[in-house]
Every structure is written in structure tokens, then in C-alpha cells.
Amino acid sequence: MLESYRVLKVMLQENGLELVVEGEAAYFNYFWLRDNCETSWESSTKERTFDILAEPDNLSPNSAHIKGDFLEIIWSDNKHSRYALHWLKRWHLGENHGDLAVRSRKAWYGNHYANMARFDYTEVMGAPNRVADWAEALLDEGIALIQGMPNSEQALQSLCEQFGAVRPSFSGYAFDIFSKAQPENLAYTSKALELHTDLPAEELAPGIQFLHCRVNDAEGGQSLFVDANAVANALQENYPEYFRILTEYEVPFRYTTNHQDVRSKQRIIELDPNNGEVSGVNFSQHLADIFDFPQRDMDLFYPAFRKFGHMLQDPRYLMTFRLNAGECIVFDNQRIAHGRASYLEGSGARHLRGCYVERGELRSTYRVLRAQYPLATDTVAWPQINEPVQAEVGRGAQL
Ligand code: OGA
Ligand code: ZN
Asked: Which CATH number does the domain 7-92 belong to among 3.30.1230.20, 3.40.50.1010, 3.40.50.1820, 3.30.2020.30?
């Protein structure tokens, strides 16, 4: 647990109070304090039932003092509030929510196959601590392989549900990839699929993708995966102007069938507004619509787009392997670009079944499970009041 402040003095000011701490001042706003009094939350739902809107504009304490390891406030309506000093310290230091799911991404390269995180189907189905490890691999590396999958439709859904509800797409809850007589998209042929992320034509592209290989007796059809985040970072380092262009232009994507016309505009490289880091990519030549920015801008855009596309294909970054029957590759569709080599029609059957789960579901599951099954390196952080048990565990190891 974080050590408490050694508070020397509490000074009431107009809109907040200052704790004078070991030579430093820590300021807290009155509305914030009142809003976050431990009695503000309903204990079973952990939702706030206190209404800050109903407080007067001039909300202020009658008195505030330190008692043991707590700041105690008596408000002007005689309501008492109490705050653990170590908890206040956390907010003063800007550690904020201490989200376990905020982790550093680990870039990987073309030789990643041997090191790719692997889990056994029966293992993750029966052991929540292994689901936490699996989720962690997806947060950090964006890809993991599940082996020993039963050859059934249900297996994929059961696996997905370890993270949360299956997220439907315009193909429904799940989709089966095999060569069809009347294919409605390229995936349902034996042709190569160039590197892409799935469904950027949707307003919010799917997050975590599962591809369960049910049968793979065909000649060819190797799987291609690339950490597009790592490539985007390399682009930023070596071609900053190209990087800027790909983070700024809004590119139209479109998917049409006889009864669908799905469109959206996406940036090829997305940035996290909190820290400016690359947070995702949208890349699909199959679904890219006719670029509609001014023709002069095409002079700038195409070289950037082509450079990024070529870098994705570079063997330094590109991982190529054969997905075997009984394996399910699980990856972050907003980080990892994927594709396949063509396969020889008639050489044998090839059947993949796929579906998606939102990234938010993965993070939510990870927060709950990692709190229940902490790593030895986890540090304990901010317990406050009615926090659920998992709040006892702080950030995961920043690897
Ligand atoms: C897809 C796809 C991969 C494969 O259908 O979008 O990426 O190996 N398929 O067939
Ligand atoms: Zn795909």
C-alpha cells in the first residue's frame, strides 16, 4: 500500500482545500471531494447515487482536519466525509484509476511464430488464471494461438465467451470461410487475401478476431500476420511525413452486397488522444472505396499509403505460417493486419470459422481476472471505501 501523507496542515480555500504535505501542497476541489465521499456510492451496485448537481454553488466545509490516516470534513450541511490519505495521495500524484488493462504494447516482428503465446483450449476453458494470461498476451502482443480446439461450431463460441459476448458484424455472429461456388467476397474463394484488417467499412471495426481452423488439407493458403503497430511506429521514425498523412486523411471504405451498403471513413493509422501513441490501424485494399480527397492530395497520399503497405509486406515484419486444423488464432483486428496466400483449388478442403469480440470486453475480462489472479510482480495500490476486491491490486507490471 502507498504510504500515507505526512500532512502538516489543512488550509481551506475558496473552491477547495490544500493539504500541506512534506513541504508540498496538495490541492483538492470541494465538489470533487464531496462527489467522491465514500457514501456517494450504493454499496451493492458500486454506482454513484449521490447527486452533485443538487449541491449549492458555494459548497464548502465548515471544518476539515486530519485524524489518524484520514482527512475528515464536516460540510456546511453537517454531513461528514472521510478520505484515506493514501487514497488522496494517489489522485494528487496523478495516478488516477490505475487501470490494469493499460499496458505497454510489445512490438513483434517476422520471426515471432516460435515465441507467439500459445494456450490449450481445455486449459483456458477451465482456468480463469490462464484466461487472464491469454488476455494479457492479446493486450501486449495483440496475438495468441489456441491449440486443441474441438472440431465443432460450438467450440469457437465457447472460446469467445471467455472474454464476453460475440460481437456480430455484417456477416452475422460468426462466418465460415471456405471456397464457395458463388462467393460474395474474396475470402470465399481460394485466391490470396492481401494484408488487411477486417471490416474497416463498419463505423467501428471489430476488435478481437478469432479464426478457428476446422480443416486445412489444401495446398498453400499460408496465414500472414503482421504487427501493424510496430510497422506504424517504424514509419513514424523513418518517414514522419508519411506517418502524418496516414494519421490525418479520412479514407473511405465500403462493403456492398445485394442487400448491404456499409460505408465509413477511417484513418489508416489511429492515434491515442491521451498520449499520441499509435492505437490502431485500418487497412484493406479490398474494402477501400475510391479515395475522394482532392486529386493534388493523391500526390501526397499514395506514396504514404504505398510505403506503409510495402512495409507491412516486408519479411522483417511479416509472420507467415500454416494454420492447422484444431488451432484458433486470436488477434487484435485493430492492431494486427492479416491475410493469406492463395491455395490450390481442389487440392483439399480448407475451412476456417471466425467471429469477433469487442476490445472493451477483453479489457474488462482482463481487469477482473488479473485482479483475482495477480502476477507476483503486481504492486498493491488504491483501496478506497466500497471498492470491489480487485481495486486492491494496482497496475500490472509494465513490461
Ligand atoms: C478473411 C480472412 C483468412 C484466411 O476472411 O477476412 O482474413 O486464412 N481469412 O482465409
Ligand atoms: Zn480477414
From this structure: 3.30.2020.30
Q: All 3 cell numbers of residue 233? A: 511506429
| Single-letter code of the amino acid located at 245 | I
DSSP 304-368: HHHHHHHHHHSTTTEEEEPPPTTEEEEEETTTEEEEE--B-TTSS-EEEEEEEE-HHHHHHHHHH
Q: How far is CA 110 from CA 30, 47, 116, 320, in A?
A: 54, 46, 11, 8
Q: Is 193 in the pocket of ligand 1 (CB under 6 A)?
A: yes
Annotated domain spans of the chain:
7-92, 113-366
Longest dimension (CA), the chain: 83
In this predicted structure, the answer to whether residue 17 has a pLDDT above a threshold of 60 is yes
177 pocket-lining for ligand 1 (C-beta < 6 Å): yes
* CATH (residue range 113-366): 3.60.130.10
Which one of 186, 195, 338, 355 would you pick to mutate in the ligand 1 pocket, going by the greatest count of ligand atoms within 8 A of its CB? 338
> Across the strands, what pairs with 337?
226
d(CA 261, CA 170): 10
Residue 362: which of 98, 169, 102 has the closest Cα? 102
Degrees, nearest 5: CA angle 141-142-144? 85
pLDDT band, residue 3 (cuts 50/70/90): low
Residue 355 near ligand 1, beta carbon < 6 Å: no
Cα 29 vs. chain centroid, distance in angstroms? 32
Which residues make Cβ contacts (< 8 Å) with residue 223, sequence separation at least 6?
320, 321, 322, 323, 329, 338, 339, 340
Q: Nine-digit cell at 142? A: 495483440
pTM greater than 0.85 = yes
Spell out the residues 6+ positions from residue 166 whose beta carbon is closer than 8 angstroms to its own: 157, 160, 173, 174, 355, 356, 357
C-alpha cell at 370: 488479473
Q: Is the pLDDT of residue 8 over 90?
A: no
Q: Is the CB of 340 under 6 A from ligand 1?
A: yes
The answer, yes or no, to whether residue 393 has pLDDT greater than 70, is no
Given CA atoms 119, 120, 122, 127 in this order, what sign does their dihedral have? negative
Taking the CA of residue 223 as reference, the ligand 1 atom at the shortest distance is: 8
